Amino acid sequence: MTTKIAAAMLGIALALAQNAFAQGFPTKPVTMLVPYAAGGPTDTVARVTAQAMAKPLGQTVLVENRPSNGGILAPELVKNAKPDGYTILIHHVGMATIPALYRSLRFNPIDDFEPIGLINDVPMTLIARQNFPAKDFRELLAYVKANKDKVTLANAGIGAASHLCGMLFMSAIQTDLLTVPYKGTAPAMNDLLGGQVDLMCDQTTNTTTQIKSGKVKVYGVTSPKRVPSLPDIATLDELGLKGFNVGIWHALYAPKGTPKAAVDKLSAALQEALKDDTVKKRFADLGAEAYPTDKATPAALRVFLKAEIDKWGPVIKKAGVYAD
Ligand code: ASP
């Protein structure tokens, strides 16, 4: 038998074994790794999605937080996990911005993962501690420009959505503020509520409740359209920052080499989850919008991720921000 034939037979045997394995998938709980702290916006999307995916999968989906500054640890852990469908990653727009922000990165968002599908879009809001002096956006601009050496802006580290939004805000108003990084915007929100930091850009999945209860001040929505659950809050574009547009999307990934049948089952479960009325309502209450099910697919996420990397790369290079 030639080496070529032996290799081909080995390949077929491997594919058959993988297929047989994936037929029964999942036979035990699936773990979804979250790159940021528990109680934050990515964690909220993860928990709502995981709970709804459990039903079609017939197995629990465990949510495990592996927070790090910038959300770069969880992708690395998932990249190195066994590619069997039992360890998956939830991440947001960071998967598209991180490649341009880090000079050295231990994972490649395109080459190291099997895309599963898009979950939702979440707008962001620019908020401040309750007793921050500025009462509206106009006063905010005047105050931060006059006090730029003492105003602090919280974020979840370089690569986080809050970092991206804050960076573009500072660039739009041509004022650099002192940034304070956390391992997620849940701990950042705690410090904002406690008055230890002044400002933050964060997803409505984390800010809606605090805004509605008046525990934080809100200055504007960062995406181009107003948020239906916060109809009175103007967009930054309406307020004068023309073209300001930061919206956050979330998606699921498996390690590269995960059998296609397992990826397809995870994707089908995600599609079922997004059709679930409880999920739709929960997302809507928090200002988030679920993707239509034809976007909750590996093919749609593959195309979208590449387009987002191409979109954000030049914007970030222009802003000139890098991590090591
Ligand atoms: N969504 C936050 C951010 O990217 C992080 C988090 O989910 O805690 O800034």
Task: Tell me what the structure shows.
- It is a single chain.
- The protein is of the alpha/beta class.
- α4 (94-101) packs parallel to α11.
- Strands 1, 2, 3, 4, 5, 6, 7, 8, 9 and 10 form a 10-stranded mixed sheet that branches.
- Helix content is 43%, strand content 19%.
- Aspartic acid (ASP) is lined by residues 36-37, 40-42, 92, 155-156, 160-162, 184-186, 203.
Which features characterize this protein?
single chain; 324 residues; alpha/beta; 10-stranded mixed β-sheet; 10 strands; binds aspartic acid
Element-level helix/strand string: HEHEHEHEHEHEHEHEEHHEH
Mean pLDDT: 93
> What is the β-strand count?
10
**Backbone structural class:** alpha/beta
What's the N-to-C terminus distance?
Answer: 51 Å
Helix content percent band: 40-55%
- Heteromolecules bound: aspartic acid
Strand percentage lies at 15-25%
Radius of gyration using CA atoms only: 21 Å
What is the number of helices? 11
The major beta sheet can be summarized as: 10 strands, mixed
Specify the overall morphology.
Answer: elongated
